[in-house]
């Protein structure tokens, strides 16, 4: 008595090769789409580089940079200038700017005069969290309004970041009215 063949090896190898081909095709298409989106957004202004005027550090929060989108369109991720890459972030708040020091991605600065609003929200760039799980900073990047999402490691620090940025925005508004 001979044991029955458990596997038809040529058929099994063909199916594995087919699956690997499908996975490679999907990854290639995703990369192509990401690069195409970057080319279509190439005319977008580049964010300010770090290295502002110094000043007193008001608050520092560690967390996750979730992404930046065109304001009001929470699924329309900005990939130009490396702004679409999720990364760890140190948010440094000064009286005249917000610095986003990102690990493994472009770090940039948001001048205080470009800050429009800040709020707690639940999602951005295709990522959703619990209610109030993200700090969304709305700011001007050239002529375009941008929403940038940051998730603080500690919820209380994130809440304090939102309050502190609100004070900076209110201070800038007051300065514009005085001038």
Topology of helices and strands:
Blueprint: H1 9-40, E1 57-70, E2 87-94, E3 97-102, E4 108-111, E5 115-121, E6 123-124, E7 127-128, E8 134-141, E9 144-152, H2 155-178
Antiparallel strand pairs: 1-2, 1-9, 2-3, 3-4, 5-8, 6-7, 8-9
What's the SSE pattern?
A: HEEEEEEEEEH
Rg from alpha-carbon coordinates: 22 Å
Query: What topology, given as strand order, has the largest sheet?
Result: 4-3-2-1-9-8-5
Portion of residues within helices: 25-40%
Strand-pairing-aware structural class? alpha+beta
- Mean pLDDT over the full residue set: 87
- Residue share in β-strands: 25-35%
Residue ranges: pLDDT <50 for 5 or more in a row? none
Overall morphology: elongated
Number of H/I helices:
2
Largest sheet: 7 strands, antiparallel
Question: What separation lies between the terminal Cα atoms?
Answer: 98 Å
Quaternary structure type: single chain
Q: How many beta-strand elements?
A: 9
């Amino acid at each position: 008595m001979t044991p029955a063949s458990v596997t038809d090896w040529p058929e099994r190898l063909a199916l594995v090769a087919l699956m690997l081909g499908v996975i490679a095709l999907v990854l290639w298409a995703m990369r192509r789409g990401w690069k195409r989106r970057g080319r279509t957004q190439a005319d977008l202004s580049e964010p300010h580089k770090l290295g502002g005027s110094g000043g007193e550090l008001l608050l520092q929060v560690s967390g996750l940079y979730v992404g930046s989108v065109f304001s009001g369109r929470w699924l329309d991720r900005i990939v130009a200038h490396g702004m679409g890459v999720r990364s760890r972030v140190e948010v440094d708040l000064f009286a005249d700017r917000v610095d986003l020091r990102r690990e493994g991605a472009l770090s940039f600065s948001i001048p205080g005069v470009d800050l429009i609003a800040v709020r707690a929200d639940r999602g951005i760039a295709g990522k959703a969290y619990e209610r109030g799980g993200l700090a969304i900073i709305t700011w001007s990047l050239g002529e375009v309004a941008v929403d940038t999402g940051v998730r603080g490691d500690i919820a209380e620090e994130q809440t304090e970041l939102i309050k502190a940025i609100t004070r900076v925005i209110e201070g800038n508004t007051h300065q514009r009215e005085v001038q």
